[in-house]
Amino acid sequence: MIDLPRKPRIVVVGGGAGGLELVTRLGNKLGRKGRADITLIERGRTHFWKPHLHELAAGTVDLDVHELDYLAQSHWHGFRYLFGEMVGLDRANRQVLVGPMFDEHGEEIVPARKIGYDILVLAVGSRINDFGTPGVLQHAIALDSTQQADRFHRRLINAFLRAHAQTQPLRPEQLNVAIVGAGATGVELAAELHNSTRELVSFSLDNIDPDKHIRLHLIEASPRILPALPERISTAAHRMLEKLEVEIHVNARVAAVLPKAVQLADDTVIAAEMVVWAAGVKAPPFLSEMGISVNSLNQIVVDEHLRSTDDPRIFALGDCAAAAWHGHEGRTVPPRAQAAHQQASYLAKTIPRLLAGKSSRPWRYRDFGSLVSLGDYTTVGNLMGNFAGGSIWLEGLFARWMYLSLYKMHEVALHGYWKTALTTLGRMITAQTEPRVKLH
Asked: Which of 2, 34, 323, 428 has a Cα at 20 to 30 A from 387?
């Protein structure tokens, strides 16, 4: 047990899916009642559910409709929002070091600060892992943030407008997209782009033939796409992408990303005007500089209660936590939205028990299966549970509903049932009066 003041300071760093769910629940449970000071430190001003970034990149989801303002959420749910980015930690004095924030003109918005804590929860997510591949940072776009997804979408729209206006024939790489990494993000992006690019062409871009001019390449170093998921899901997704004429390259290791191409280790060059890097993730590098144990991906090593193995005042959840996967020897819990959701729910119950001097049960990850959305075409996956054979195979409309329910669970955790129902209805009405693809 640790000594805590009468009104402890609970600081959560990172407002992703898990961090925002946690701070909202703690604010409702503790902050509103004056039992603790709850603070969220976040470098962004708005929240967007990360599993939807591929739809934002393709233009099938509008950021303005789905983003959430941290400042308003903090006002409604009893916590404090601090605009800033964690850059270090002073464990001796129990202070989070927050760097200064600047606007686009270089003018300081908020200064560097030190934020004291009694309990610290790190939920800073992950970043891309380029594995040291030359050219990735210079020539590829990752889908780590809304800014990157929006940047790719603008490049996509500009590429189509440019091709529509030009009088000479299209170049071989023009309107080609190469997606490096065939995990869930890469596969879902490929299917979503097939849909959105054809929708885009239908808006009187008559000189562009989708079947002739648009080529989507999906590149994966492993022997199959979706290598982390069951083979049946991989096979079904592969079959559907082939029907959509997505060119799939497996056993294809990327040696370099060129200005308008991807070079493979066997010297094959795949021409593409746009390259998306979705090949791997790792936690932010500053986590390895705080004096607590991390693994090779900079993830914080945590115990069965999601506490740092070196400091009982520090917890971690989501992509930045290396939590042992009970029953899977030597493996850690995969970086999935359902894992972050479960960890946030666990800590929302465990931290109040800690304040009350009570013990809590160890956290166990429950794998409810995996669902992969292939846009409007289909959704495939499996649900895990106490079933004969261990899982139920899903495909089609019901699988699509289950996929969408994951996002609804996240919204309910943030807003409650009534507001989630009303905002969902509002989006459905708005969708009837807007283009299916964002055109700017």
From this structure: 323
Residues 439, 370 contacting (CB under 8 angstroms)? no
Per-residue confidence of the chain (440 residues) as pLDDT tens digits?
688 888 999 999 999 999 999 999 999 999 999 999 999 999 999 999 998 999 999 998 888 888 999 999 999 999 999 999 999 999 999 999 999 999 999 999 999 999 999 999 999 999 889 999 999 999 999 988 999 999 999 999 999 999 998 888 888 889 999 999 999 999 999 999 999 999 888 888 878 888 888 999 999 999 999 998 888 889 988 999 999 999 999 999 999 999 999 999 999 999 999 999 999 889 999 999 999 999 999 999 999 999 999 999 999 999 999 999 987 888 899 888 889 999 999 999 999 999 999 989 999 998 877 778 777 666 766 655 444 344 555 666 666 777 778 888 889 989 999 999 988 888 888 877 778 788 77
Q: The tokens of 29 are what?
A: 């449970």
> What does the alpha-carbon distance between residue 95 and residue 90 come to, in Å, rounded to a whole number?
5
The CA distance from 304 to 368, in Å, is 19
Find residue 409's DSSP bridge partners. none
Q: Where are the alpha helices (DSSP H) in 37-77?
A: 53-58, 63-66, 70-77
With a CB cutoff of 8 Å and minimum separation 6, the contacts of 365 are 323, 325, 326, 333, 339, 342
Is the Cβ–Cβ distance between 203 and 290 less than 8 Å? no
Strand partners, 257: 262
Rounded distance between C-alpha atoms, residue 83 and residue 198, angstroms: 40
**CA-closest candidate to residue 369, choices 330, 416, 414, 405:** 405
pTM of the model: 0.91
User: In 3-state terms, what secondary structure has residue 132?
Assistant: coil
Domains of the chain: 9-126+283-355 (3.50.50.60), 136-277 (3.50.50.60), 369-431 (no CATH)
Q: Quickly tell me which residue has 């989801």 as its tokens.
A: 61
- CB count within 10 Å of CB 316 equals 30
**Cα separation, 220 vs 122, whole angstroms:** 31
Q: Distance between alpha carbon 321 and the CA centroid of its chain, in Å?
A: 15
